[in-house]
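Schema walk-through. Below, the input block comes first and the output block second. Nothing else is stored per chain. Lengths vary across the set, and this one has 367 residues.
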Amino acid sequence: MKHVAVIGAGKIGSTITRILAATGDYQVTVIDRTLADLAGIEPHKAVTAVALDIADGAGLTEVLRGKFAVLSAAPFHLTVSIARAAAAAGVHYMDLTEDVESTRQVKEIAATASTAFIPQCGLAPGFISIVAHDLARHFDSLEAVRMRVGALPQYPSNALNYNLTWSTDGVINEYIEPCEAIVEGNLIEVPALEEREEFALDGVAYEAFNTSGGLGTLCETLKGKVRTLNYKTIRYPGHAAIMKALLNDLGLRHRREVLKDILENALPTTTQDVVIVFVTVSGRQNGRLVQETYANKIYSGVVAGKLLSAIQITTASGICAVLDMLSDGALPSSGFIRQEEIPLDRFLANRFGSAYAQSEAGHRKAG
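--- output ---
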């Protein structure tokens, strides 16, 4: 049995804890700031709850000592502190952050660490990078890689056409921070919420627009190899216009806590959601210009005896699959590991990664 620590007892952290404990293969120490924050963790013989201020680097390092790995489901601004504690404690490190600068610092920490550092293990960045890189391997040369992901309510009922299914801090951050992209072969930054497009999938209309962090490390990996590379978040039409008004016209990009309070008190959560993964890659195969597309929808369902939202399932399954693969020796045991270095077939064959495979069959196309 491997002993691991999970940082954060929110929606995703509690889900990770639950599904790891249910396997009987992991003993989980879940850590959050106060006992009140830990109240949602269900009692289980394989789970220990510890109240600790994550900002206490020395205290966190001590709790992590002797563990196999630490999995961070904490807000992005705590990422670097947790990574430093992992390095000091000599444990493997995984996180779910979409924050670009935090990941750059994690990479610097990994350079002198003795264990594996694998950031961005969720949905986007995370699984989306594994899919995109797998498709890209089929081409002799690449023209364009376009990645689209959305976590949406199945039954939208407000002007934003949105429910809170994920970290509010994370959503706000990706709507504000600059977005990496490759345009005409050059790595540049583009503004969030811009370059809006519309498309339909299975007869449903969607919009997509730039958001930060979804590309993970793919820009670095594919720089010099592709003409166009971009990532956009999928929403129902009308969402981007309202968010731009809130952030720009009302100035709430400079008052994130106010915007967070508004959203969390106005938008209900839901378990009736759907995660959409849509990746299109074009390039040359044997001299011909060819396009391949991966399209997948994942819905909410029962996991480890509990009904979970689609975003809980996909995000938690991603990081748990990476942990499993690291534990089994399928991934390097030291150094900085990019998501695109993880083989798609091995990921989908994993007991946790298979959550993505449930509706994956028949959704890969070439044309």
